[in-house]
């Protein structure tokens, strides 16, 4: 991959890169299409990264559908698929540790200790191997994107970061590879995460943040299949919780919840 990337760059090609863990859905394919529009060559990676899972069972059960994914990528005319083995990406234990300070001490970082160290490690490796001009990520993983954007700026990676809006099912559920694991009953309940975000956005027009957070918790408590982990109203840039709305600050509504043992996240950015 590294040699091919060097050859492409020396030939004047621009590389658009979409890093994923596979089990592709329409949201992933929109990232690929954006990469194809803005670059002459597209590279897609599929690698279920063991170092970003703090739950061994979640790693074991994460959907792995490489043959199906390849068919989807071929239909989209993806130029290169990079799908390494864990032993190739991690020939030995990694000693380097990333610390993103306050960016990772909230939300996902608070409930998944070590997660962003694993994400930053594997993305750093992928950037070195693929050497893309642009890299494409989904807004659904807003905190991940913010942290990786910080990584790129702190370490002067020669790559332009691109964040694509959340892609949703017709009923509003954010597309996710984990959705495949939902039972029909869980899938029906999962849409209420999006409805909770919509409720919060509407309430914020007239209510204060503490009252809105209480209303969201109360709304989701009506559904036995949903166990709310967090709902936060944060500054988009700093990811820090807001005590009150500020018209000068872009605000994100962020949510995470369990349906059985399946953890889903979503967010909505208020401009």
Please tag this protein with its features.
271 residues, alpha/beta, Rossmann fold, Pantoate--beta-alanine Ligase, Chain: A,domain 2, five-stranded parallel β-sheet, three-stranded antiparallel β-sheet, 20% strand, globular
Q: Quick summary of this structure?
A:
The protein is 40% helix and 20% strand.
Helix-strand sequence = HEHEHHEHHHEHEHHEEE
The main pleated sheet reads as: 5 strands, parallel
Shape: globular
Instruction: Provide the structure class.
Output: alpha/beta
User: Per CATH, what is the topology of the largest domain?
Assistant: Rossmann fold
Domains, number: 2
Number of strands: 8
CATH class wording of the largest domain: Alpha Beta
CATH architecture of the largest domain: 3-Layer(aba) Sandwich
Low-confidence parts lasting 5 or more residues at pLDDT below 50? none
The value of Rg in angstroms is 19 Å
Tell me the name of the CATH homologous superfamily of the largest domain: HUPs
User: How large is the share of residues in beta strands?
Assistant: 15-25%
Helix run count: 10
Descriptive account of the structure:
The protein has 271 residues and is of the alpha/beta class. The chain has two domains: 163 residues, 3-Layer(aba) Sandwich (Rossmann fold), CATH 3.40.50.620; 94 residues, Pantoate--beta-alanine Ligase, Chain: A,domain 2 (2-Layer Sandwich). It is built from ten helices and eight strands. The strands form two sheets. It has a five-stranded parallel sheet, sandwiched between helices. The longest helix has 20 residues. The radius of gyration is 19 Å and the shape is globular.
């Amino acid at each position: 991959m590294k040699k091919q990337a060097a050859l492409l760059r020396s030939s004047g090609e621009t590389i658009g890169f979409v890093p994923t863990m596979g089990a592709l859905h329409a949201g992933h394919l929109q990232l690929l299409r954006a990469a194809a529009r803005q670059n002459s060559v597209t590279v897609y990676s599929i690698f279920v990264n063991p170092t970003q899972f703090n739950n061994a069972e979640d790693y074991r059960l994460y959907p792995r559908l490489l043959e199906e994914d390849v068919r989807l990528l071929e239909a989209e005319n993806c130029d290169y698929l990079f799908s390494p083995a864990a032993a190739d990406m991690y020939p030995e234990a990694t000693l380097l540790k990333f610390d993103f300070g306050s960016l990772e001490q909230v939300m996902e970082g608070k409930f998944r200790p070590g997660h962003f160290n694993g994400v930053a490690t594997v993305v750093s490796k992928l950037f070195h191997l693929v050497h893309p001009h642009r890299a494409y990520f989904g807004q659904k993983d807003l905190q991940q994107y913010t942290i990786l954007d910080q990584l790129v700026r702190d370490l002067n990676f020669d790559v332009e970061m691109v964040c694509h809006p959340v892609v949703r099912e017709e009923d509003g559920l954010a597309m996710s590879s984990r959705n495949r694991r939902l039972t029909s009953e869980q899938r029906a309940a999962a849409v209420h995460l999006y409805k909770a975000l919509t409720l919060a956005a509407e309430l914020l027009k007239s209510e204060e943040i503490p009252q809105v957070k209480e209303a969201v918790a109360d709304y989701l408590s009506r559904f036995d299949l949903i166990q709310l982990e967090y709902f936060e109203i944060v500054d988009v840039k700093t990811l820090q919780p807001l005590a009150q709305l500020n018209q000068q600050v872009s605000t994100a509504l962020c949510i995470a919840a369990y349906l059985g043992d399946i953890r889903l996240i979503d967010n909505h950015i208020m401009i």
